[in-house]
Amino acid sequence: MLYMRPSPPIPQFNIILGSLVNIKHYPTAISLSKQFESKGITPDIVTLSILINCFCHLGHVNFAFSVFAKILKMGYHPDIITFTTLIKGLCLRGQLRKALHFHDDAVAQGFRFNQVTYGTLVNGLCKTGETKAALELLKKIEGHSINPNVVMYSTIIDSLCKNNLFADACNLYSEMIVKKISPNVITFNSLMHGFCAMGHLKEAIALLNHMKLKNIKPTIHTFNILVDVSCKEGKMKEGKIVIAAMVKAGGKPDVVTYNTLMNGYCLVNEVKHANHIFNSMVQNGITPNVISYSIMIDGFCKKKMIDEAMNLLEEMKCKNMNPDTVTYNSLIDGMCKSGRIDYVWDLVDEMYDRGQPVNIITYSSLLDALCKNCHLDRAIALFKNMINRGIKPDKYTYTIIVDGLCKGGRLKIAQDFFQHLLIKGFHMTAPTYNAMINGLCKAGLFDKALALLSKMEEKGCMPNAITFEIIISALFEKNENDMAEKLLREMIARGLLQ
After folding, report:
1. Which ranges does the record mark as transmembrane (predicted)?
2. Taking the complete model, does pTM exceed 0.85, yes or no?
3. Could you read off the pLDDT of 300-311 as tens digits, one per residue?
4. Residue 278 located in a structural domain
């Protein structure tokens, strides 16, 4: 086409570019447009709109606006699709303020947008946590004679539910009904998530019946939401009833359904049942994924069935499946807790070799095992290695290292370390203070233990029953009965002794 004389009309080239965009070959479409422009073939408004779409999908919003400037320079009039594409591009890049300013400028110049444009803005605002702004926009567009649709309402309801503003979500749902905007399956799925997050399983199931009354067909995702909350609450019987309802409604359980059920059985320590579900997946034509294997490996490790877990890891490798950090962390933690710490380092090396990042959970498992096996020098070296790698310790890591040093007779190092944390302003929780207080009490340093108890409260960390029990037990052991009884009375006054 490029070398035909005369050149084919520009719509012929646009058909090719449009086809490439449909199959998401955006760079190729851009490259071909450059080729025909270099041959003197002038793009039209359709060509330029296609290029804007390509640049926006590739995240090159600045280039997209350069093409927009070219449209204006060539005297073309951009349509609503062009404007909406640019707004979507800005939203995808998280540039919501720019998107809103661009919208306001266009409106000020007399341009009018449609439901698709406003749906894009609402979606962008919700995804960046600006749910309040999305609600304000919803009210604003009604003043522009644009009727908000079910997509906009559902997007905001979903965002409200995810932000634990469930009452607001219900109010917005009621507003939809009053305005005679029919909810769809996405609306109900979001509300179900909300009910489930609040622990209201019965109300969530009632929504399923409400959907049937409105002739809205639930999706597999709808049922999976209910299966998930049932299993997380340990209500395996209810979860299986939901799956039976799914099958009755013509749905087929997918890998998410099976994973959820397996995870539920593992949570209630019924690993054999979980393994049965895992084995039945293949028989029912469902291929287990990395999450499936990780759930079972974690379940086996928590029951200290390390050989079974390792067999699954080997099975994954045979199937060319890449175990992820979650998979390895489960195995490392299981091996550490089963006393197989010498074998753990091979797994850590394997993680590095496979490009799986070692994270704070990995380090915490290793530190805990080293401390409990009295390898304190190695634990200190590993802690320093973690810091050097830019991995920030969390409250569990601090507790592990302080407790390990105290119990291993390295009280001075534990004190220095703890003091360093206080000076640096780290927010420590009660278990970390308890570990340090326990170490001081074991060494008979009651004055320092009591001083740390006061410091704990000064720092806004309230002592718990364990804190008092540690000091009181140590005082009784050293026959410091008067002080022990005084603390016991204080413990009762605080309501910490049942």
Report:
1. none
2. no
3. 999 999 999 999
4. yes
